[in-house]
Amino acid sequence: MRWALAGAVVVLLALPAVLSPYALTLFILIFFYGFLGQSWNIVGGYAGQLSAGHAVFVGVGGYTATMLSIELGLTPWVGMLIGGVLAALLGAIIGYLGFRFGLRGFYFVLLTVAFAEICRVAVSNIDALGGPLGLYITFTGDPRQFQFQDGRAYYYIALALLLIATGTAWAIERRRFGVYLAAIREDESAAQALGVNALKYKMLAMIVSSFLTGLGGTFYAFYLFSLQPNTLFGIPLSVEIIIRPIVGGAGTLLGPILGSFILTPLAEISRLYLGQGGHHGAHLIAYGVLLIAVVLFLPEGAYPRLRRALARRAGEAR
Amino acid sequence: MVQGVVSGLLFGGVYSLMAVGLTLIFGVMRVVNFAHGDMMVWGMYLAYALATRAGVDPYVSFLVCAAALFALGLGVQRGLVDRIVEAPHEMQILLMLGVALVLENVALLAFGPEPTRVRSPLASATLWLGPVFVDVARLVTFLVALALTTALWAFLFRTDLGRTIRAAADNTYGALVIGTDVRRVYAVAFGVGAACVGAAGALVSPILPFQPPTGLSLSVASFNIVIIGGMGSLLGAFVGGLLVSLAESLGAVFLKPSLKELFSFSLLIVILIFRPAGLFGRRSA
Amino acid sequence: MSLLAARGLTKRFGGLQAVAGLDLEVGRGEMLGLIGPNGAGKTTVFNLLSGFLVPDAGDIVLDGRSIVGLPPHAICRLGLARTFQIVRPFPRMTVLENVHVGALARYPRAPEALARARDVVAQVGLDARALVLAGALTLADRKRLELARALATGPAMLLLDEVMAGLNPTEIETIIRLIRAIHESGVSILLIEHNMRAVMTLSQRIVVLSFGERIAEGAPAEIANHPKVVEAYLGDEYVRAAPA
Fold first, then answer.
1. Which of A145, B145, B150, C76 could tie A195 with a disulfide, CB 3.0–4.6 Å?
2. Is the CB of residue A203 less than 8 Å away from at least one CB of chain C?
3. What is the pLDDT of residues A67-76, one digit of tens each?
4. Domains of chain B by residue range
5. How many pairs of residues across A and C have Cβ atoms under 8 Å apart?
6. What's the number of domains chain A is made of?
7. What is the ipTM of this complex?
């Protein structure tokens, strides 16, 4: 298995040489949304705390780096880290309010959605942050400003982000942190009786997850050269974030990646064929149906099912 | 300011109806209907379609909307929710989120993103009631909502099926033991819950401009009310509806309209953190 | 000095006085049985001792240290572990992974904790099913798993809540032997049980609870015919009928 993964990474590193610009963009999106999904996975999948407002961290990260760049000329490479830290701070606040006051299940979902919507409306109403029309970034092509002429640079950055998030999840999975998160997800009270400080570990998961997601905000802003509050803080982005790990397998390492490889091309296709005339809701219908289908038929996600099928195949081959 | 109070109270009838519907669904099945607001929006669009295509006034068509949404609720419950009654809560949440997504975006596809309102002859009429003037539309909405809630109360407390539903809500296992067809109870409860917002949507369509994304705000408003009033308490939902509507219209007096959403969501957070078992309710499962 | 001592333990739920000024002591290396009719407050006592409930009044001292108000995970780390009356396995994790969680309380590094978990799994006799998902186990095995998980935390004091409920006679025999072995390895045990034979066989001393108060205490033989105990369980007509 390890060799297969290593091989895949090598292939991905070499791929840009043979990809068309369109395919390159597709891969960038696969990696980027996979990265966001993997970051969410840490708190939503491993720890089992369903956050449906994760876009708020993308927004905080993106707006922070952009404002620092516009107002202070600070390079987004540093702005990205600051944005991540601020996102982590917000994550800590949301986490503390939720976990300290015992908000589980749907109460926690509501809390996260509420925070995301508050930020969305607040930012829309603050003219200094660009109001409802948002902010625009002038194209300079300067790498120190996180801008690149060559699309391949974005490819490698997105891939790096995905690998960082996956590496983090992997490191967590094999340590006590990861085992405790799984226990909390399965039965928080029983875990507490076994010495697990649920509050502490949920908070840690939330902070790590929101920091990583915040980093993504900068990439988003500087890849698209613009930010709008409705896009960056909105529910559609939150849905994009969670659907890949859920379909691919929440709480598994490869689930979000598999989910992104499945869903991102599908989303792009539906956007092409159904997205005419501004009906960008169409692919969200597909997401909704998919979510329902996954819950009914494939609750643990595609990856665990796939892994079992492959193991059976390997067992039969012997 | 008294104006604001009266206005608010009148809108409360609708809020109460919405909240009672949500409570019915939650109380019986312990399922949180994240698609509640989106179902209401469909009630609104249905009323709109009936008004523009068939010239039916929403104050009449609300019955049709209620029936249509009843069918939708029944379908959703039988086809989807029923299959995951035993599943962990996250699965139920995700399922209803999926339903919400589908409902909202099909509406977007079918009706477009522009805000709409239904024209009703009552909508522009006003009436003096003592020192304040009152929208006739709001008054009628309030009275009809009140009538519906009373009818619902009669159904739940005076009919056999209603009593069975309440029994199942109180103690599902016990209801099973005495031979209740629990699946049927669930289906009816979900259907009635959806019918409530179907009616509420139609009643509100002349007063409130709506668009597909309105569903989320309506869902949040419903959750606010139900959590304040106490999860699982019908009386709490009813009273909570009036209270929250009051609070919101007082807020609207002092705040910019675009900040109204901010207020709603902030209220939700405060309630979530300080929620007791609500005014009348028991703690949720 | 006793290992665990509760003094004046009181807990009220609204109008119901669940536990009323209870004094309880478990000596080092002792196996104490806690019995009483349903509703006597036994599980409430466990919840108070393990930190899942905060007492309205009273003190709880574990190994010389007051633990009132500490959260459950802290109390577990101080050496008091408990099982639940209705078992709560982590269903989507294997037997070994379940016990691993417990072991991490004693050994923070995952590999060492895993080794200890393996030992404990073998100790309770579940090694043949170590890789089975907990959700797929029989009730008897789940009870053993519950025991193993608590044991893996390396407790000095173990609270067992009706471990035998729902088990058939053979399974009960097995569990009795297991509990005895755990006790002999040096763990002090406080045992809630309805199975009288088991309690009488295992306990060195028994405390009887009724309506949140201690109504009797002593060696098993004394308790069996104690008039107050008979009265609490069966009603006072039987007190007069009971053989002396």
1. C76
2. no
3. 999 999 899 9
4. 2-212
5. 74
6. 1
7. 0.89
